[in-house]
Amino acid sequence: MRIGVLDVGSNSAHLKIVELRPGRPPRPVRSVKHPTLLADAITPDGRIGAPAVERLVEAVGATARAAEDEHLDELIAFATSTVRDAANREPILERVAAETGIRLGHLSGRDDARLTFLAARAWYGCSAGRMLLMDIGGGTTELAYGDGEEPALALSLPLGAGRLTRAYLPGDPPSPRDVRLLRRLVYERLAEVGGRIRGLPPARRVVATSKTFKQLARLTGAPGGAAGPYARRVLSLDLLRERIPELAAYDDRRRARLPGVAKSRVHQLVAGAILAEALMTTLGLEDAEVCPWALREGIAVRRTRTSPALTVTDELGGLIQHSFGRRRPPPAYARERAGRNATVAAGRSR
């Protein structure tokens, strides 16, 4: 069975197409990504601004066309916390459905943590033993802990790199005072969770997922993407601490020139680094291994282990679509663009 997993987040709409084979890991077929750039478009009242909504609709529409071209058996489409928690979520979801044919659902924060943990477990195998997972997103941070496929503890915290940047680091570069205040706030908010996790038996393997952790590992000496997914990448707390003052002193343009830093995420890199350092310190960790699999892969793994006929009571049941394969009229923005292009072409032919 060929499925697509569409994850619409604060930076991009990312469609991952995989082949599901009974008893075997999901096989990646194709990955399609289009920018949404929502992180800096949240208004003070918690709404996503109109230009960002346009980008969101365009990005989902582009991935919808890619999904149609692949003749998928099913599509699992969801929005992450930036859209899920927006004050104008419902009008956005209605417009996306009307113009692209894609119904975006959403996962709870706890299910996000559980499925990401499942992805890491599938990547490292049962021999990894007791595992602690950390995932820093744009709006939330997920933590999960356990020794099986299902974590004994799964948490989602309203601490994301984009959310913290918007609220506490307005400058470019941020002021030293703002950096100090954010660091203090993050430590305060992690204190209770840190004490709770430190009271559990130590994890045999500490795993970090997400683009934030990948970028930080690269900045502290881990291999780049050219080394392939199987290269071991580790984020050291000591090396991370050494880089934070430098990252905080740079402006976005200078940070964007650093190895492994995505231009779309450069503005939230300082907050992500502060949050990662606070997490590792609070949890008593010296380092963490970066896992190439995360939520999308966790959903694919879960799908290989569930009945073909899911109900809406299943964690993925309400997200699965089968009727996206027919061609639809292009959305308004595409019709307008096509009209402009046709006018230009006609003028050139005269």
Automatic annotation (TrEMBL):
Disordered: annotated segments: 326-350
Alphabetized UniProt keyword annotations: Hydrolase
InterPro entries xref list: ATPase_NBD, GppA/Ppx_hydrolase, Ppx_GppA_N
Pfam families, A to Z: Ppx-GppA (PF02541)
Alphabetical list of SUPFAM superfamilies matching this protein: Actin-like ATPase domain (SSF53067)
Recorded GO MF terms: pyrophosphatase activity
Domain Ppx/GppA phosphatase N-terminal: 26-302
Family: Belongs to the GppA/Ppx family.
Protein name: Ppx/GppA phosphatase N-terminal domain-containing protein
Source organism per UniProt: Actinoallomurus iriomotensis
